[in-house]
Fold:
Amino acid sequence: MLRAQEHWLNAWVEAGLDVADAVQAAQLVTAFVVGFVIEEQERTSERYSLEQRDEAVGPDAPHVVEAGRALFADADSRFDWHLDTVLNRIGLRLE
Structure:
């Protein structure tokens, strides 16, 4: 498992990061992915019931209601958008 890191560390170093920054970037991406997966699993619970959320928010906050709908939009698209944002901030793109 440790040696498997060599490939992506090499790619990120060749892209302009030093090894320390590549490791930090990898930890950030790993934390994002794990957190995203945990949140997606939670979306199946009552905690993420759109009906209960809408009721709690009320009709006087339509943007918050709409934002809740965005939370349930296509998970793959959300994941791609979030990961792309993280990688762009790091200054890298996966190919």
